[in-house]
Design goal:
Strand content: 25-35%
Number of helices: 17
Number of strands: 99
Radius of gyration: 55 Å
Structural class: mainly beta
Largest sheet: 7 strands, mixed
């Protein structure tokens, strides 16, 4: 390090040490807080300075708040500059105590700033502070210091460690403000104290990031994934995949236990793959992600804080030995999220409507919108509700007495939710659910209600489709008090009443019988009972006595609810089998009241006794058996009698109906019945011969309602990964059971719900499979080529998502990724060979390029074939000049400049403009220009350039290239003028004008002075004119015409190209266009027109530019230039290698459409500049595309139109824009040419030939003019090869000369008023009557037109009208005034400008071409731009002399009124004042003088630094005694 560098570092070290200094003995380190910020080799543009040295700026102090007024504190001052420019720093604000007493509270407060990430190469902030001490000796040696992080005792001290040793030193008690306390925390050190910083970068904030990395988040944007993996060594693999962790995952932790080893593969979203081998413990970096790896003897641990910068595939490499286990856990981001869409289109175009937003499912990984099912898969995602707003509130316009009635006005309500009635409740009590259907409907003006899309009703909450019902308690059993025990001694019973009580407190049914509490239980009275010995129970008596007792015993009422039977009624029949009835009641004896109470039947336990039974007295026929019959006969007769009388056939109801509707049948059920028990018994007990006949009856005769008819399910659409099965579902109706006709009805006619026509199937993950992309283009269209496609290994999961996997997951046999194509033979074509020899041995000659007919074979090689095979194709013929050597005894050819008499008008911004000398140019400012001077027989390196008659010199933006051309970068007003190219003895001029500049070109002063010295017998004016004879035209001849063309342009930058705009920087002068023309019409960058064409226009506009004829001519010129100069601009922007272009031969007029790359070819029309020779004088044959001027009568006029194309184009002709009507005099030849017999004045007009095929069309026009009369007539021509206006002489006829002589000729032309235009727009025609009148006014009479030829040219009787297109420019309303600030209180506001037809339909912008386009940008006044640069006071210079002193000041962008600081780019409309500067740049005296040159010499003495040469030289006087 040199002495000056050492001094600079040491001086700057001292300059800031005035505030914080540590006096140390020899060898101790010195810490300066601002050292790293102002070192010479780290000097920034705006160095920070000590705030204590900056004088107080009164304007920077804010007004005192209400709280401050109650205290002794002044208001807080402005915030200081940030301590760091990135990575998070600190800024402070001060206030002062207004009292001599002590004020309570702090006089300083802090806030965070510059909370943006530093660039990767910025380095660590703490490490920078340690490295700043590398050039300060410690213990007599220099060290390279490394930072020591995470000091638990004092994290805000600067502890550093010497590299290569164990030396650890505290170099400073405090680190710089903004230094992180710990590496894994946002907490920062401020004034030596660790301050808490939340994730919102606010001091003292406790905000924390959730596991998903969202500050103050709730953890809903990610989900926890955990799992384990066990290696399988027996599988024979050498490696295996543990887990694939997707992009943006966080908090990854993997632990491997076992002998195997981990490694990581990554794959970015762009498909770039990388691999990372983890061979030792430490930190690794992969795809901007830090990985921490720890390797132990028996396990490996991998931690990744994240977020991951790519998809990470963690793999395991097998090592022989036991299997390993891997456990992993990470937080995976939910990549599918809901996001709100823009508003839908308005429901109406006028009259007031509404529009809604919706929500769409967005894939954060691919940046695309996907189907909603992806977002519905995550329950954490909550779909945002739609928002509604009004739109198109302007009233509808009346049109032809009809006012369009738009929907949704005051008399027509918005769509609404319509609901069906609630269904029955699912349960009768204890809370059920009932549902209904809800649909969106709208009502028209007649009250008809029709269903519509649901999104129209989403402005209001959808009514509920489910609601709870019957939420009252179910009936429950309620038990009454127990009765007293039924006995007075011993064991007895007691009873209670149990009632079923509902929610209203009433006794009702509905309780569950199985849960009914018991109504009796045993009870014990603790009094012993004494029984008589004689008393025996019924069971102790003989059996016959028991039966007798039971027959006679009557059941009596007890204290337990019991069924009590009444006596049997008499038998219903006196003979045979009958029935008898009795009453059965459930009764209980209430012992405490000794009364009998009737209860419901369900209160009694057990089966209820029968209330009827069969009875039999005597047979109804026959006699009883006599006593002589045996007992066996009586028993047999009794059995037969019992069979006949006790069992019989009976009908018992009917079977279910065979149909549910539409008419069915049901059959009567026959059973064998026991007449006594009334129960069905075995049918064998009844006599089969007495079985009644079968009975049938009709049932369910009402017609069937419409019903859903479903078809069979189709097979699943996929074999895995969730597919769909479909079936047909239709609403059908069958009039009757016998009918074969089934009608299909609307879905609304059938009962809801409709069966689903689709259902999911095969919901399980697919195995990994190869996914093939489409085949790419064939490398060759014929002759054999190759096409390729892309293969990816993908797996479709059960949720429908597709996961991209490594190729090793898919089957080893992959599909082919390339295949042959283009096998068909190539057609023959002309193939060019080498150039032929030069036609001459010396001088200028020509060379031709030969062509051979060849055919491409399958191997790609060309084989020569007979040229007849290429006869259908155009044979290329190319000629180029050649020169071998100079011919002897020949004069050296003269030098010539290939000037072009053209006028260039820049139409829109372009990157680079190519110009050629000899003409004019009107250019937009800030355009790069190349001005060329093509020459013959002259070296381009010897070309000289002049401007305004003086030699042209190189400037920062203007340079003369060795190739002889001039290049001007971003041309400006000062570049306007006359440029002269000098090549030997010849010279050419070029006039350059800047559009928008108010400056008019004038004759240079140097030329005027030169002309005064060269009088030589001629006047000064004559000399001056002679000097300017080389100029092509007067300087400002076309200015007015070009200005009118630019006005018709309708530019969107009416005020942006002003070259002399005050107080505007170069950045603001050139603004990119805010709108581009539509794709189907590209405006040319440059309009190029021959100067003679503009001379014609100027000649015909001699009556003034303001007339209607002038407007028509200018508009017609503008249309020609913009629609037909696409290729001209291409050559202007990118000129050919040779500036010499031949004008001989046919000119191919190409249409302004894109060329097709297929075998077909769009039409082109051959334009030949000359008439066809060798034809009879009575005939005239010309090619379309030029002026057709008939100076004398001809018999036949043929307009030839030769067109080429594949397929062969068809030819059509129009006249004045209308379809040409053919007749016997005007006809179409077989070649497509137009023949006019005996053409006259009535045939004048614009004839257009259009060639059209399926690939496109092109047109070319000619103007036909028929001469008559006397005088000179000039007609415009769009012939590209013409050299000027075509003029001819008119002669009088002899008859007209005889009719009228002298000045007082009474003959004159009389014209009537023009008729209305045939169309309102788009180009029409008008006509008027022109008559030749003889005699004075009032007594004139009409004569033949030929007599008026002496009165002048016959006025035209037709003219074009309404040539503007049937469209107009339309604009939206101006937007808010919130654009970029461009001046004091001045901003920009925008609006949308578009072209539309009269019916309101939007059309391409080219349809409005020619109409003045409204501006889409204007300035507006806003208080938000009332901003200005506010500068503080300069700090004290850091040196009193020398070259190293500087001082700084604070520069901020503030609001005029509020004084609030804002971002600096809002004030960039005015140059930013400098914030630092050099100072005291004075000599520090002669070498012999000894004086101090810095104000820190006192500190140098205190620190005993005088022995060091670098300090002693600057503090010579203070160190003189050391």
């Amino acid at each position: 390090m040199t002495g000056s560098c050492l001094w600079t570092a040491g001086l700057l070290l001292l300059a800031v040490y005035a505030k914080v200094a540590v006096l140390a003995s020899d060898g101790d380190a010195v810490f300066i807080r601002e050292f790293t910020l102002i070192r010479r080799d780290h000097l920034s543009e705006e160095p920070l300075h000590d705030s204590s040295q900056k004088p107080e700026d009164p304007s920077s102090r804010t007004a005192r708040s209400e709280e401050d007024r109650d205290t002794l504190w002044d208001a807080w001052g402005s915030w200081s500059e940030c301590s760091r420019s990135c990575g998070g720093g600190a800024s402070y604000s001060l206030r002062r105590c207004l009292s001599s007493k002590t004020c309570e509270g702090q006089n300083i407060k802090y806030r965070t700033c510059s909370n943006v990430d530093c660039p990767p190469d910025a380095g660590d902030f703490r490490a920078q502070q340690c490295s700043a001490h590398a050039d300060v000796r410690y213990q007599g040696e220099f060290h390279e210091w490394l930072p020591v992080y995470n000091d638990p005792d004092n994290p805000c001290s600067l502890k550093c460690k010497a590299k290569g040793s164990d030396l650890m030193v505290e170099l400073a008690p405090k680190v710089l403000d903004g230094t992180r306390c710990y590496t894994e925390s946002l907490d920062m050190c401020i004034s030596g104290i660790c301050q808490i910083v939340g994730c919102d970068h606010e001091l003292g904030s406790t905000a924390k990031e959730d596991n998903c990395g969202i500050c103050n988040g709730d953890g809903s944007s990610c989900r926890l994934v955990r799992g384990h993996y066990k290696s399988q060594h027996a599988s024979g693999k050498t490696e295996d995949t543990v887990v694939v962790i997707p992009y943006k995952s966080r908090l990854v932790r993997l632990v491997l236990k076992g002998p195997d080893h981990l490694y990581v593969e990554s794959k970015t979203l762009q498909g770039v793959k990388s691999e990372l081998v983890l061979d030792k413990s430490g930190q690794y970096h992969l795809e901007n992600t830090t990985l921490e790896f720890q390797k132990f003897l028996d396990k490996e641990v991998l931690r990744i804080t994240g977020p991951l910068g790519a998809d990470f595939t963690v793999k395991v490499h097998f090592v022989s030995g036991a299997d390993s286990m891997v456990q992993y856990i990470y937080y995976q981001p939910i990549i599918h999220r809901w996001r709100e869409t823009d508003f839908f289109p308005c429901s109406v175009t006028c009259g007031g409507g509404y529009q809604l937003t919706s929500a769409e499912c967005f894939d954060l990984r691919s940046g695309r919108v996907v189907v909603d099912q992806y977002c519905q898969y995550y329950p954490e995602n909550v779909k945002p509700k739609p928002r509604l707003q009004e739109c198109n509130m302007e009233p509808c316009l009346d049109s032809d007495g009809y006012k369009e009635i738009m929907p949704y006005d005051l008399y027509h309500p918005l769509p609404r939710w319509e609901s069906s009635p609630w269904t029955a409740c699912s349960t009768s009590c204890s809370g059920g659910i009932q549902s209904r259907s809800v649909s969106c409907v709208e009502e028209d003006m007649q009250g008809n209600i029709t269903p519509t899309e649901e999104w129209k009703c989403l402005y209001s909450t959808k009514t509920a489709i489910l609601q709870p019902c019957n939420d009252f308690d179910c009936p429950t059993w309620l038990a009454q008090e127990w009765s007293p025990c039924t006995v007075t001694c011993g064991q007895g019973l007691r009873y209670r009443v149990v009632l079923c009580i509902d929610h209203r407190g009433l006794h009702a049914g509905g309780c569950n019988p199985t849960t009914k509490p018991h109504i009796k239980e045993e009870c014990l009275v603790t009094v012993p009972c004494y029984k008589s010995i004689d008393t025996l129970p019924v069971e102790a008596k003989p059996v016959w006595h028991k039966q007798a007792i039971q027959l006679e015993e009557e059941v009596t009422v007890t204290e337990e609810p019991t069924f009590i039977s009444g006596p049997w009624q008499p038998c219903s029949r006196t003979c045979g089998i009958g029935t008898q009835q009795r009453t059965i009641k459930c009764q209980v004896l209430l012992s405490f009241s000794q009364t009998v109470a009737d209860l419901p039947d369900d209160e009694c336990e057990g089966d209820k006794p029968s209330s009827s039974q069969p009875c039999y007295r005597t047979p109804c026929s026959g006699e009883l058996g006599h006593g002589g019959e045996s007992r066996e006969g009586e028993e047999e007769e009794g059995k037969m009698l019992q069979r006949e009388e006790l069992h019989d056939w009976e009908y018992e109801g009917f079977t279910e109906c065979s149909e549910s509707c539409g008419g069915g049948v049901q059959e009567a059920v026959i059973i064998c019945l026991n007449k006594q028990t009334r129960e069905a018994v075995d049918q064998n007990l009844c006599v089969s011969s007495r079985r009644p006949p079968q009975l049938l009856q009709d049932c369910k005769t009402h017609p069937c309602p419409p019903r859903w008819e479903t078809g069979e399910w189709s097979s699943c659409s996929t074999t895995c990964g969730v597919g769909l099965m479909t079936r047909t579902v239709a609403c059908t109706h069958r009039p009757s059971r016998d009918s074969n006709h089934t009608a299909v009805l609307r879905d609304a006619d059938c009962q809801k719900p409709k069966p689903s026509p689709v259902q999911a199937c095969n919901r399980f993950d697919c195995p990994p499979m190869w996914n093939t992309h489409d085949w790419g283009q064939c490398s060759q269209t014929c002759g054999g080529g190759v096409q390729k496609r892309r293969l990816l290994c993908k797996q479709r999961l059960a949720d429908g998502s597709i996961l991209e996997l490594p190729d090793t997951f898919c089957p080893s046999r992959s599909p082919a990724n390339q295949q042959p194509c283009g096998k068909q033979d190539c057609p023959p074509q002309w193939v060019t060979t080498d150039w032929s020899q030069c036609s001459v041995t010396c001088g200028n000659g020509v060379q031709t390029l030969q062509a051979v007919c060849k055919k491409q074979g399958k191997n790609g090689r060309y084989l020569a074939i007979d040229s007849k095979n290429c006869s259908m194709m155009i044979r290329p013929i190319r000629i180029r000049p050649c020169f071998l050597r100079h011919c002897k005894n020949l004069l050296k050819p003269d030098t010539t400049i290939l000037a072009q008499r053209r006028v260039y008008i820049q139409w829109r911004k372009g990157k680079k403009i190519q110009l050629v000398v000899g003409g004019y140019a009107y250019l937009l400012p800030w355009t790069t220009v190349v001005l060329r001077c093509p020459t013959r027989h002259f070296r381009k390196g010897h070309i000289h350039w002049l401007k305004e008659g003086r030699p042209l010199v190189n400037l920062p933006h203007l340079s003369i290239k060795p190739q002889g051309y001039v290049k001007i970068q971003q041309v400006r007003s000062s570049d306007a003028g006359i440029y002269t190219c000098i090549a030997g003895q010849v010279r050419e001029h070029f006039v350059l004008q800047i559009i928008g500049s108010k400056q008019k070109l004038s004759v240079p002063q140097s030329w005027l002075l030169e002309s005064g010295h060269n009088k030589a017998g001629r006047s000064g004016v004559t000399s001056l004119e002679g000097r300017f004879q080389e100029l092509p035209m007067p300087l400002n001849q076309y200015d007015n015409l070009v200005e009118r063309l630019l006005e018709l342009k309708g530019s969107v930058h009416d005020e942006e190209y002003l070259a002399d705009k005050p107080q505007s920087s170069e950045k603001n002068r050139s603004t990119p266009e805010d709108e581009r023309p539509s794709k189907d019409f590209v405006m040319p960058v440059m309009l190029i027109v021959d100067s003679h064409r503009l001379d014609e226009i100027m000649h015909n506009l001699s009556e003034g530019l303001g007339g209607p004829r002038g407007e028509q001519l200018i508009t017609q010129l503008l249309s020609e230039l913009t629609m037909l100069q696409g290729e001209t601009n291409e050559s202007t922007l990118h000129p050919p290698e040779s500036a010499e272009s031949s004008t001989q031969g046919p000119f191919l007029h190409k249409p302004s459409i894109k060329a097709h790359t297929s075998r077909g070819r769009s039409p082109v029309i051959i334009q030949r500049p000359k008439k066809v020779g060798v034809v009879p004088q009575s005939e005239m044959i010309v090619y379309v595309g030029g002026l057709v001027l008939l100076q004398k009568p001809v018999v036949n006029l043929e307009l030839r139109c030769e067109a080429l194309g594949d397929p062969q184009p068809s030819i059509t002709w129009t006249k004045n824009g209308k379809q040409l009507h053919f007749s016997s005099r005007v006809g179409l030849l077989s070649t497509g040419s137009l023949r006019i017999r005996s053409p006259g004045k009535g045939d004048e007009g614009l004839y257009t030939c259009t060639a059209r095929n399926r690939l496109g069309s092109t047109s070319l026009s000619s103007w036909l003019q028929v001469a008559s009369g006397k005088g000179r007539t000039c007609v415009h021509s769009n012939n590209m090869g013409g050299s000027g206006p075509a003029c001819f002489e008119r002669t009088n006829s002899s008859q007209s000369a005889q009719l009228c002589q002298g000045q007082a000729c009474p003959l004159r032309w009389r014209v009537d008023a023009w008729s209305p235009c045939s169309v309102t727009c788009g180009g029409g025609s008008q006509s008027r009557t022109v008559r030749c009148m003889k005699g004075a006014e009032g007594s004139s009479q009409e004569v033949q037109s030929r007599y008026c030829l002496v009165a002048g040219r016959r006025p035209s009787n037709t003219r074009l009208c309404n040539i503007l297109p049937c469209a107009r420019w339309a604009t939206t309303s101006w937007g808010l005034c919130h654009g970029q600030c461009v001046g004091p209180s001045l901003a920009t506001q925008h609006r949308y400008v578009y072209c539309q037809e009269t019916n309101g339909t939007k059309v391409p912008s080219r349809m409005c071409f020619g109409l003045r386009r409204p501006s889409s940008l204007k300035n507006c006044t806003t208080e938000a731009c009332a901003l200005h640069w506010h500068v503080g006071l300069w700090t004290q210079c850091t040196a009193t002399c020398g070259r190293h002193g500087f001082q700084s000041r604070q520069v901020t962008c503030k609001h005029h009124r509020t004084g609030k600081a804002t971002r600096e780019h809002h004030c960039m409309w005015r140059p930013r004042p400098p914030s630092w500067r050099r100072c005291n740049i004075l000599s520090c005296g002669r070498a012999g003088e000894c004086q101090d040159s810095t104000r820190y010499c006192e500190k140098v003495q205190q620190l005993e630094l005088c022995p060091l040469p670098q300090f002693k030289s600057r503090c010579c006087y203070s160190c003189r005694n050391t």
